[in-house]
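## Example pair
The file below holds two records. Each record gives the amino-acid sequence first, followed by its structure token line.
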Amino acid sequence: MPAPQPEHYLDRILNPRSILIVGASKDPVKRGNRAIQSLVADGYAGTIIPINPREREILGFTAYPTITDAPGELDLAVICTAAHTVKAVIEECGRRKVKGAILLAAGFSEIGEQGRILEDEVVALARHYGVRLIGPNTNGMFSARLGCNAWGLPDIPRGPLGLLSNSANCVTSIVMQARTHGFMGINTMLSVGNQADIEFHEYLECLGEDPAVSAVMLYLEGFKNAAAFREVARRTTQKKPVVMYVAGRTSEGKRAAKSHSGSLAGAYAINRGALRQSGVTVVERLYHLYPVAEALSLFPPMRGRRVAVVSEGGGPLTVAADALVEQGLVLAQLSQETQARIHAVVPNATAIDNPVDAGGGTDPRAEYYGPIVRAILEDPAIDAVLIVGLLGGYADRFGEQAAPAEHAVCAELGAMMREYGKPVIVQSHYADMKTQSLRILREAGVPFQRHVEVAVQCLASAADASAARARNAAAPAAAASARAVPEAARIIDAAMTAGRDLLETEARDLLIACGIAMPGHLLLRSADDAAAAAARFGHERLAMKVVCADIPHKSEAQGVLLGLQGAEALREGWRKIAASAESYRPGARLEGMLVTPMAPRGTEFIIGITDDPQHGPVMLFGLGGVFVEVIGDVVFRALPLTTGDALDMIGSLKHPSVLDGVRGAAPVDRAALADLLVRLSRIRELHPQIAEIDLNPVIAHAGGLSVVDARIVLRRNVSTPA
């Protein structure tokens, strides 16, 4: 037998054997009384210890005047007193060796500087004594293992889901959703509050190691340590799903998040990309959190994105097809053999190639679903099955005589999902009625939903989660290297000594030194160098760009000319750009003019590296040229970047068909583009003096990739790795 896993350091805090209620009260409206009531109501299996200096007994439990007087080993203190009392309480907890404390009170960093100072003092005191803190500004915690309801919300349905949230109200919403659904409840839930001490990644790690938790849901307004969360999420999602709603998609949402929890809501696109990279399933609707977590807990891994749809025919098939395409899933063609098997079951079906009409043009029969779904699951071109329409309501729709066949097929669907290892989900018009057939279906392990769009979201999330798990298992994120590229370091050191960013010529030389192919270029120090440039490049059409530390944005200064040919054109170009530069920035010191061949026509991309306040260095990749102006199709990932990350990044564009070549453009070499992204990530990893890299545009064409423009911005006071 395998050796038992060591207990996580938070386990005795999240599943306490003994609980102190600090500020316990006989007044039934006060939290110090309601906390005891909720523990009793949920059958808490540990020891309840009220702390009140004036009472000897509260709700049948012996009360003690101080924490020091409390008997036995003490796991958790629920502090129900005001913010100004908390320092003294934590001091007492520390001296009594209490393992953790829940700080319910508000009045800390979420209210401003004065609250932040108090919060810092409380945290410093707790760390001195080794007391871990949940909150402050939290509604508490619930864990099912021992019935620890230190939240106060009654009738929390128990089950295998974990729930972590910046918002107590959002937790309540999800609990009500679980209570209404009735089939999958909560194992552990926390309102993390200000995360003054214990942070999201620590809670996630603990729930990730708990075998009783099948999936973790999170409502996020902001991280304290995004890099640590990503690393824990990368490990956790190899074992179980992590599903997250990220608040702050809009500027108004960001402001609300900050005022609510004191969190810094990061740029949504960056958060989404970095979390996806770590294997987290990010949903864009709060009400999708619970159904997606439930479905991913039940589904086998989804091998691809190819889905078959089965219904009695009509509108639901069309709605489902639209929803699948919108979510990036594929309505795959069934094989001729599969279609023949379906035709044998329903000879009058109006559609059997996918979607599949299981009604046969007459009154539907539930028994058709068994052989049809089995034939589809045996088709190697299909990764999952979506059933939409009446299933679950046949007895209501066609009379009780239809019930036995429907019950049988609902039980059979669960067995088939496990047999073939492919997800099956049902959208039923009767979902809200919780019919006996649907209960049998759910007990067999098949999720059902009322709405097509929610069911499709579950399948799309399953496909994403399985792909991320495979990607991260194949290539875990590389650790930072210790050695810089010598020539690149020399270029950076020279610019830093001069107190400026890299000139474009230097940026190009650095990229070449780091193994990135660049078009040839010359630096013309004066107009007299035009003849040498013309001799080198012959009849090629050339671009000329000003090189000047005082003019970082060349186009604004009219410092770019295109399509130049021959020495005379280059000389005239020099004079024209020099005059424009002087007009734009009088006295600017010109280093010269960069001359390089015009890139072939192709698909334009923008690639950049910058620093995000939460995630640190991140990479931007998107469609460039007119595309970046019109549709803003860009994605982000955190650094360092693996090849798998880069390929996923490229495939995550909202308009991926552009990669396949449009309007005569050659298909994009995705492998070459991914290699460029990984090399840029490596450059930033090896040379932390680089603050920003901006390549715009990079043109993909039949001959490969051409970096047309390169800009590298340096940070100050950062040394080169030894």
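Second record, same layout:
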Amino acid sequence: MCGICGVIHFDGAPVTRQQLQMMNDRLRHRGPDGEGYLVDGGVGLAMRRLKIIDIAGSDQPLSNEDGSVALIFNGEIYNFQELRRRLDQRGHRFRSAGDGETIAHLYEDYGADALKHLRGMFALALWDKRRGRLLLARDRFGQKPLYTYRDSRVFVFASEIKALLAHPGVPRASRFGTDDVRALADYLSFGYVPAPETAFQDISMLEPATWLEIDLDGAVDSGRYWELPALAPPDPKAQTASYTGELRAMLEEAVKLRLVSDVPLGAFLSGGLDSSLIAALMVKHSNAAVATFSIGFEGDDSFDETPYARRVARHLGTEHRAFRVKADALELLPELVWHHDQPFADSSAIPTYLVSRLTREQVTVALTGDGGDELFAGYERFYAAELMRRLGFVPAPILRGAAGLLSLLPEGVGYYDPVKRARRFARAASLPLERAYFDLARVFDADLLAQITASDNSTPLGSPVATGRRASRQPSQHPDPLGLGRYVDRRPAHGVARLVEATMRSYLPDDLLIKADRCSMQASLEARAPFLDHELAEYAATIPFNLKLKGATSKHILKEAARGLLPDDIIERKKHGFGLPLGAWLRSDIAPARELLLSRRARQRGLLRMSVVERLISEHASGRRDHSRQLWALLTLEEWHRQFVDG
């Protein structure tokens, strides 16, 4: 695991070690165990290394036999041993015992098609000296990040934006408040800036499963080497037993591949199905005791899953450590924003950050359950969307009226608060299916978005704000609010399956995996996600959708595959997201949030209607409404401006 960065000067000016050092120093947390550099005239590469496999060797840059190919990469290639055997038979000679060198030799034989042979998570940069060309690429799901900046003189890339900004040629300019009127609306709707755009002008994120080639003269070529498979529609004749055996076998293989390590490893264990199943398979295939880690928070027991994690740990016999903390969200805000580089409204970054930091005290690698909800339709909003589809006969005015009546009732801040959940459902159910799903997921709903932004920035529901990736290219009032139109030739027939596909293309890489990467790497902890094995994902896509979402039961097929490994009460547990009692914390002491959001600096930005911000704070503090998601989105936005724009 590493952090990587590099520079190409199109005018031929030499890259200096000092330039690379300035960028590389910003990535020290991603790789505290060493650093490496390559300077070849107008091209420079640098990296920081966290040693996981082949600790004594595999220092980067890695090269082929004659040194004409130089590689830096961040990640793990889980099938490297199989690849190495094949390459040995083809006459390649290796200098290291690690996974990275296989990429350099594969490139010799296959060029950019080498990416198709890799099974793992990665962001890489490969300098082909003979062709005078730099290849960049990311893994299929986007587990490892890569950002780029380009103008007529220079091309710069890095694992994190803060490293890009350390290069003197990269401008520090915000997209918010510019002529790009959708930027702020996108962030307030999604809670993140959808890739490939970022919060910075002219800085882009390389998308998952994508490669980019840059020549010394500035010519750029790009392409995709893999696509998410289309999900199989429901099949009334499908039998669960026809799939559970193969699914269990593929899950076991995905876990076994991720147990290869020369340093201690463990697992995050929330007590939910996904992380519990991964821990169970680790125990089954590990020769040593498995360490598991969970975290809980004081303030609201409805968010505390540590009793369930302990239950699973006792059943599996793991060496379990449960941390229970009383965190100050506002105290953590500056550090979280610094590591995310952009405003990021997902408050579950707080527990992810803390459990990563505490886990790193014991192990260097942790397996996670990330991806299980996306592969097997685990989110409650998928069932809610299916229920809405069935309630299509109810007139929209009745549903809107019900939402209006529910809005008069006070909202609690508990995880399962019934008033809040019923109001959101009734409001969303009055909309067409794809817009309804987006309404359930978004941070600021359409009405509140229009209220809080200036009139020329407000964008109605169903417009490109709700389109996801490449939203700015879609016309106003687009009828496809989740942006699936470009996949129209392969859309599954089932409406809710389309929503699962949309989640895998947007929320998974732009929110969940960003959070997992930043929060683990700030602690120099490598997080591995067996559910995001692409061969497992390809198989899961073939399973009929009604075996994933079966009536009101989400992840039905995965639950059946877990029988015998976990207690039935854990398998049948109601879905519980990884969260924290942010609403209760803010309600108990709203003063720090009020001071930051209503400060003179915040007012002078002119981005928001401050009267609406004041109303959100007052309604939350009084107990009338739970605005914790919206307030956290605004807090990270303001803190980001202070660190990355004002500073």
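Notes on the second record: The domain at 2-224 is CATH 3.60.20.10 (Glutamine Phosphoribosylpyrophosphate, subunit 1, domain 1). Residues 455-480, 483-490 have pLDDT under 50 and may be disordered.
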